[in-house]
Amino acid sequence: MSFISLHFLAVILCLFSLYYILPKKSQPYLLLLGNIYFYFRNSGNMLFLLFITSLACYGFGIILAKKARKGQKAIFFFAVVSMLFPLLALKYGGFAFSILGIPFTHSLVIPMGISFYTLQFIGYLADIYKNGQAPEKNFIRFFLFSSYFPQILQGPIPRFAQLSETLYQEHEFDGETISYGLQKILWGLFWKFMIASKAAVFVDNIFNSQETIAGSLYLIAGILYSFQLYADFLSCVFLSQGISLLFGVRLSENFAQPYLAFSIKDFWRRWHISLSLWLRDYVYIPLGGNRKGAFHANLNLLITFFISGLWHGAGFKYIFWGLMHGIYQIIGKYTLSLRDRIYAFFRPLEKIRPSLRRLTTFFLVMTAWIIFRADSLKAGLRALYSIIFQFRPAELFNGNLFLKGLNAAEFVLLFFAVILLLVWDRYTEIKESPLLFFAGQKTIYRLFYSILLLFIIAVFGTYGYGYDAGAFIYGGF
């Protein structure tokens, strides 16, 4: 049962209908029932694993809060290992056996959201152990936090202090908040069907092809995959936030116009913010951060991005992708003064430096995304080799471009949708979210543009038989 299905729509309508009718004290319990149903429908008996892991985390949290108890460090270490064990065994067991050269033929079922809720649990325990956060004493409330269905599939990865503040409140019916949530849902559908699902047709055709592909086509596929991934994840976050707002619950923002970043370091302040902050607070800083000199700072950075890559998937391509971003940042740090001198020497370039920095950053990110998307590290490196040494620009003009799943008209639609996304981000960057602008309009205008947007999605969106537009990319991680 994905976010984009009639079944899910029926569940949301049912929950929403009861949420503001039943006594307010029952609201958390109603959401918990929604969590349980959603998770069971998607992962079946793996709901039991989520329940047991939540129970263990809840218990460890209470124990860690007792500061007078001896051996707190050992308890914390054991608690973290306990939280990690299901993830390591189910997601990385086969990969570990393959590295050791041991045949492993069993097919392991990976529970929905395990990569997200595992980090959620570790962050919760670390905040109690290191930062003195008070643990949740009511297990039902804690299980509501750990299983909250709008964010468990793809995040954002919530901090307990942040999410519990709004999740446990009694909520009045607020027409403006609900209207804003519906607008988020509508635009989430737009980004999904008009960019992510449409770009996926071309991208899958290129990366899944058994033919020899020209570097020029790989470059187009890499660019489109960059926007496919962003639009897909942004769509899911919009849907998660919008659905939550229907119940008065506010989720944190997870993106801040990442493709307007001026550097790789800036990119990671904007991309998957909840994961970036988690890695900073619970990996990079505990390792020592930049407090022990340049060598250790660079090493800690590489370790952090190694873990980021491994978190995304069990495979060498993910590790390589993570390390690419770590190396990007190290090189960027040590070449900054050189770049400053170059721009100072060529003064006319100084005026366009911000644009050049953004284009360079996007190109570096896109190059890494090609490795990320490829079927294997070898395939990804072969694609990059093809871009450099087998570009063959004629492929872009001889009609082959329109034989890879999208015709010329569909490319034009995709192009304008991507431009709209960039304009949306630029407007947000310099002023405010366009959603706030729409929210300030009269009801009749909001209704008109909502109907128009639904019409555009219905007529021009990419979906249909044989294509799973409802499957979100990050849900696989």
Please compute the radius of gyration using only Cα atoms.
23 Å
Put simply, the count of helices is 21
Backbone structural class: mainly alpha
SSE ordering = HHHHHHHHHHHHHHHHHHHHH
- SS elements, strand count: 0
The multimeric state of the shown protein is single chain
Beta-strand residue percentage: under 5%
- The helix content, as a percent range, equals over 70%
Q: Which stretches are low in confidence, meaning pLDDT under 50 for 5 or more residues running?
A: none
**Average of pLDDT:** 90
Outline the structure in words.
Helix content is 71%, strand content 0%. α1 (6-19) packs antiparallel against α2 (27-43). The protein has 477 residues and is mainly α. The chain is globular, with a radius of gyration of 23 Å.
Features:
globular; single chain; 21 helices; about 475 residues; mainly alpha
Briefly summarize what is shown.
This protein is mainly α. Helix content is 71%, strand content 0%.
How are the secondary structure elements laid out?
Layout: H1 6-19, H2 27-43, H3 46-64, H4 72-99, H5 114-131, H6 139-147, H7 149-152, H8 160-167, H9 175-207, H10 215-246, H11 264-270, H12 273-287, H13 294-312, H14 316-334, H15 336-345, H16 347-350, H17 353-373, H18 377-389, H19 408-430, H20 434-439, H21 443-460
